[in-house]
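Problem statement: downstream parser choked on a complex file, so we are re-checking the raw output for the P53 run. The parser issue turned out to be on our end (a line-ending mismatch), but while we're here, posting the original submission so the record is complete.
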Amino acid sequence: MTFSKDFYWGGAVAANQCEGAWNVDGRGMARTDVTTGGTVNTPRMVTFIDKDGQKQKLPNHGFKLPEGAHFAVFDDELYPNHDGIDFYHHYKEDIALLKEMGFKMFRLSISWSRIYPTGEETEPNQAGLDFYRNVFTELRNAGIEPLVSIWHFDTPLALEEKYGDWQDRKYIELYEKYVTTIFKEYKGLVKYWLTFNEINNTINFLPDDASDEAFQEAYQHLHYQFVASARAVQIGHAIDPDYQIGCMICGITYYPLTSDPEDILFNRYKWEKGIFYCGDVQCKGKYPTYAKRLWKEHNVELDITEQDLVELKNGTVDLYTFSYYMSQSITTHKNEDTVSGNMSFGVRNPYLTYSDWGWALDPQGLRYYLEVVYDRYELPLMVVENGLGAFDTVEEDGSIHDDYRIDYYRAHIKEMDKAIEEGIDLIGYTTWGCIDLVSAGTGEMRKRYGFIYVDKHDDGTGTMKRSKKDSFYWYKKVIESNGENL
Ligand code: P53
């Protein structure tokens, strides 16, 4: 095996999906607090009061708050993120379990609205700062390196209501204020930071037939986030030169379904738009040549200043991190054999099998992705999400035999091993939802990822009791043997 002795084995979660305590200790709301639960074929809905005072809801995916409307929580709806798995009150117990597995790294996110409840306060919320200090200290004491996502889909809701979803330059300075606070506050406790989780989702999951207006908003949203990210890198390095600050890309490996040159080109352009566009700006510090082509396709005209371009240049990231769950096959041909999931996941690849949520199981796709991005950026890499969302069955004696999850991880770790063997500088692996949590896409609990089971269910019931699945013992062995004992 090739894993270096200081390889960062671990797992990952996000604040809004695990913390719960949504309205505790001064926390402000985020979009997830007004988003209901869904399933693989029923969308999560966002609830709001329209300009005429009527209760309304619209699908979360592609959501935009109508003119004059206000986000609202309704008594007769269930909001799974409100309670999450109550990590807020269970973090000590949870970190003890991670330590028992031998974790070297734990990825988690800070909820912006715990620190600045509406985003616009001049002083941070002390209770929010204290919570994360306690968590990071607990991790340090357990010998676990924190990897902190600064933004994981949770812009303070008050900002979204006031300025649209990253549709105003104002966001850059508000994000700067937030990152300056946490970079100073946690100096010495945290070293690894990620500026925006899956930043590319904004463009990658926008359907090709969306309106020009939707593309305009998506590219503008991204531009403000790129500048905010670049400012964060500069601010972070000034506060602590040891800070390692990365980008975070939703890594999907795209394949052309056929050998038709149209499909080959379509696939190449999909990589550019969906994957490389964000990584190129964040790693190389400038917009790539093909950006002009992408903007022109949809008559996009962006608010980009000369100073923005200087910031992008001076704020390139130290490492490239990404999530990897699946590959997707795409084609320009009419093809009805699509894969159904909670969003469109392309056409069926006859060589692959699929999860219960329609995600292609493709470990080799991970190696393909690692090779492509290492060749392109030559930066240290981390796989900061990877995992299998699956139904788990609790046996009468309380045990959970999740061999399907073990098989999934084993196959992916083998591919990482090959990539390292080739010389790729892969320094860490944090599996997604190492402890069961609320699914981002569907809001379900029953789409489980964990080594640790949490007794929490989609109807809101459950004791929140934690228990160990078979994969818990397996992953412990993997870490103990540094990837030898798979
Ligand atoms: P869930 C779609 C495709 C790939 C990754 O996803 C995605 C999504 C959004 O649903 O998101 C990431 O929970 C994200 C996590 C999320 C995880 O993948 O839908 O960074 O917050 O939970 C898994 O099964």
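For whoever reads this later: Residues 14, 17, 197-198, 250, 323, 325, 385, 389, 432, 439-442, 447 surround P53 (CB under 6 Å).
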